[in-house]
Amino acid sequence: MNRVRAICDDHDAIEWTEADTDDIESIWRARRDAYPAACEYYTDQTVGVIGDVVVPISKYSEIVRQIETISDDLELLTPCVGHAGDGNIHFLPIVDTDDPAAMNRVQKLTDAIVSEALELGGTATGEHGIGIGKRKFMRQEHGDGVDVMNDIKNIIDPTGIMNPGKTLPSDE
Asked: What is the spatial distance between Cα 97 and Cα 91, in angstroms, rounded to a whole number?
């Protein structure tokens, strides 16, 4: 805390405020409650996907604006919560998950946000992993590194029994 305060002082910070224990707990409670709150926003809808991307911190405000624009274009309410200090943002589009058209819009939203994050110099995921849904972005993000990843996977798992069909894209 002293180091951060010294940096702020060295750069002519206008004001310094330290949160007390109650303030910090309130902030963490709000963060923990973000997902349940999104799930309860509408009685007949819920979070369609918990998405995440990471961008350079200098691009954070840009990805937030892009998520808003993409959500508006797709007519989706998409609350976000993130870790601005490391460029991570989680997006939580709220839809009727039994509606195939709505879930199609959620997939379009996810793909557009991931593409935007990559264009901004970020990554397709920060915490939630590649899984199946983001495999198609691996080559865009890692280029020929995907070939090396596949080579390593084939050495470690020559019969393909370890988590088949996950993370790495299939041969194109």
From this structure: 16
pTM of the model: 0.82
Measured CA to CA, the distance from residue 155 to residue 48 in angstroms comes to 37
In a domain, 9, yes or no: no
Q: What's the number of domains the chain is made of? A: 2
Answer yes or no: do 122 and 145 share one domain.
no
- The two structure tokens encoding residue 123: 């990554």
DSSP track, 83-125 = EGGGTEEEE--EE-TT-HHHHHHHHHHHHHHHHHHHHTT-BS-
CA-to-CA distance for 118 and 55, rounded, in angstroms? 8
Q: Are residues 49 and 122 located together in one domain of the fold?
A: yes
Same domain, 155 and 139: yes
Does the residue 4 lie in any domain?
A: no
pLDDT tens digit sequence for 18-45: 888 888 888 888 888 988 888 888 889 9
